[in-house]
Structures are given as C-alpha cells and as structure tokens.
Amino acid sequence: MATTTLSSKFQISIPKEIREEMRLKAGQKFTFLRKGNTIQLVPVRPIDEFFGAARGADTSGYRDRSDRLERYAHARPARRKGK
Fold it and tell me: Is the pLDDT of residue 16 over 60?
C-alpha cells in the first residue's frame, strides 16, 4: 500500500506507482468524495473516454418511462383540475 504525507500547505503527492497504474496526467482534475472518516479521490475523466463503454450490452429487458406510465395508469385515479 502506497502512503503519502499531507504538506503544511495541505497538499498531497500521488505516489508514482499509482500515477503510472492509473495513467494520471499533470493538471488533471479530481473530485473529493467524503464517506464517513474516509476520502475518495476520483479522477475526472473526459466524456469521450466513455464512448463505447456499453457496446454489446443486452437491452432486450429495458423499460422506459412510457412503459411504467402505461402499466400503472389504471392504478391511479385521474386528477381533477383545480385541486
């Protein structure tokens, strides 16, 4: 496990092995997520890196909003105007 120290200016350096493994670049942006007493440092990735990520996914069981509205329309009483 790689460790680092928080500087007097509240800065940290990401250890070289992690930078190389994750292909991090100088100037890259990060998001800090606080979860209880831990902090997750998540690299912000450009949207174009996600293109094709779901290629080949099975969408045969996909339900959209219209499907839900049709299915439950009979279960709800119609709303009256003015109330």
Answer: yes
